[in-house]
Amino acid sequence: MSEWNVCIHDFNQRKFVKYNICNEYFMATMKDTAMKCKSKEEFLKELKSECRYRYWSKCEWEIIIQEWTGRENPDEQKIDAYDQLEMNWDRFTEYVVSEICKMTRSKKIDYLR
Question: Which of 65, 73, 105, 109 is deepest in the core (most CB within 10 A)?
């Protein structure tokens, strides 16, 4: 099964955990999207839109990172799961495309190869 992890905070367990963005449901959705698209560019646009819809600026996907140098007012920044994807967007898109190609050998998505 596909796996691309981001770091999130599980408030039930009260700890940071790895979360697999490329879970079965997400990949099935992206496979269906790929079947409907007519070009790789169109698919990548839809992938970005889907990731933003799911993981962008929603509190359950946000964590705060902070420098740890012992200063009284350390710098901190809020990032979400989408920010974590965006840091490696080119690799992430290559990975998703590769996994979709493995999932199906359909002629309808030859444009991804």
Answer: 109
